[in-house]
């Protein structure tokens, strides 16, 4: 059958002597999911399921906690201008707000940390990169949670 | 494939198909070529052909291979959307070359054709499917029953029970879904939508008794929990399987089994 303007434009034939031939083909990238001695036998367990479930449940609770928090802090009753040391001290005098803030701190930090963990798992390709990024993430998470918890429980309104 | 055109040309008595009534258009196919015996790099190569836009991309590939460049390499068997051999990335989307009409692809611009992503390219449009089938084998895609004796009668099933997993029986293992999944692209350790779809087909089969084992397999670190519900797989499936929904049903089965 007739064909006008046949064949290739764009990229011409490979110039010069090729490094590769039938007997010496170019290296092929190792296929994924290949079973090697180093690949772990099984990584089954309920951790990933628990993490997945935690994301959904904490997300629902956080919607209520965070929107409530934003309303109280920024919108209702004078908005952001009312916030000061006295306002925070007054709120934390009540165990209800202590529990609210504690819950929000823990859920938000764990929710965010778990989200970043999955991002690292999905995007960091080298094992070492993953190790360092996750190490940094877990350190920051633990530090923030512990510091925040300490402040909520040991807050002294009469500090001078 | 050109028969109707020739008939028409004969009927009107013109020596060659006129410009006005010719169904042929000139389309450019930009194909990602890779030959490990020539170069370690893959390159794009353009082929210009005259073709009826009502034909399929597979017909265009055939025309190129048979008339322009015999070294073009691709898989195809049945050419009618059943064998699942010719999944490829056409204009950036995973499709079957034998189910994609050229007129649906905007042939005014070059049509890009490349191998599916995430699997090792062996040559041109052919990839190593072994990791894909390894994940498929891992979910034990066959009927398992607890009784050891050979059955003496047919395993009966109600129409409703059959309907439960009907959608996932349609899979042709073309790998369009798995190779469209961004989680699979990362390190290829994720089981992938196709394996989960085929596990779903047996997990929700009332005759099968190893659903528990298959759920356990998919509870892996690289199992269903790595699904990010991006719906790439559902978009890519040439059989219209609701892949992401099937994955969600497996997730739900895992959770309800535990709690």
TrEMBL record, chain A:
UniProt keyword list: Heme, Iron, Membrane, Metal-binding, Transmembrane, Transmembrane helix
Subcellular localization(s) per the UniProt record: Membrane
Residue ranges of the TM segments: 53-76, 96-116, 136-155
Region annotated Disordered, chain positions: 1-42
SUPFAM superfamilies noted in UniProt: Fumarate reductase respiratory complex transmembrane subunits
Keyword Iron: yes
UniProt KW Heme keyword: yes
A Pfam family recorded for this sequence: Sdh_cyt
Protein name: Succinate dehydrogenase
């Amino acid at each position: 059958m007739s064909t006008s303007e046949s064949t290739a434009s764009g990229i011409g034939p490979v110039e010069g002597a090729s490094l590769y031939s039938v007997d010496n083909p170019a290296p092929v990238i190792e296929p994924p999911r290949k079973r090697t001695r180093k690949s772990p036998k099984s990584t089954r367990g309920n951790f990933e399921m628990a993490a997945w479930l935690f994301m959904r449940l904490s997300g629902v609770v956080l919607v209520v906690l965070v929107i409530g928090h934003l309303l109280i802090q920024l919108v209702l009753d004078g908005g952001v201008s009312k916030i000061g040391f006295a306002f925070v001290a007054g709120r934390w005098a009540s165990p209800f707000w202590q529990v609210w803030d504690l819950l929000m701190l823990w859920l938000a930090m764990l929710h965010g940390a778990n989200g970043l963990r999955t991002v690292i798992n999905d995007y960091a390709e080298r094992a070492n990169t993953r190790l360092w990024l996750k190490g940094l993430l877990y350190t920051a998470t633990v530090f923030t949670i512990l510091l925040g918890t300490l402040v909520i429980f040991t807050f002294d309104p009469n500090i001078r | 494939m050109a028969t109707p055109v020739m008939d028409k040309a004969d009927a009107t008595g013109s020596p060659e198909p006129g410009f006005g009534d010719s169904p042929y258009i000139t389309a450019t196919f930009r194909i990602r070529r890779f030959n490990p015996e020539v170069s370690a790099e893959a390159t794009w190569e353009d082929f210009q052909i005259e073709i009826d836009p009502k034909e399929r991309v597979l017909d265009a590939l055939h025309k190129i291979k048979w008339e322009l460049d015999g070294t073009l390499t691709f898989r195809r068997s049945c050419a009618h959307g059943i064998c699942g051999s010719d999944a490829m990335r056409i204009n950036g989307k995973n499709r079957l070359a034998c189910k994609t009409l050229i007129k649906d692809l905007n042939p005014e611009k070059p049509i890009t054709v490349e191998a599916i992503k995430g699997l090792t390219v062996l040559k041109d449009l052919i990839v190593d499917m072994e990791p894909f089938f390894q994940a498929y084998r891992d979910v034990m895609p066959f009927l398992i029953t607890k009784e050891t004796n050979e059955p003496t009668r047919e395993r009966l099933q109600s129409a409703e029970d059959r309907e439960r997993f009907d959608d996932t029986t349609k899979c042709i293992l073309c790998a369009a879904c798995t190779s469209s999944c961004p989680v699979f692209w990362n390190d290829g350790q994720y089981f992938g939508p196709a394996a989960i779809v085929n596990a779903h087909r047996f997990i929700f089969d009332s005759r099968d008794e190893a659903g528990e084992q298959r759920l356990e397999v998919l509870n892996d670190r690289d199992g269903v929990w790595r699904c990010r519900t991006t719906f790439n797989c559902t978009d890519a499936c040439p059989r219209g399987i609701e892949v992401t929904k099937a994955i969600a049903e497996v997730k739900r089965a895992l959770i309800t089994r535990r709690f």
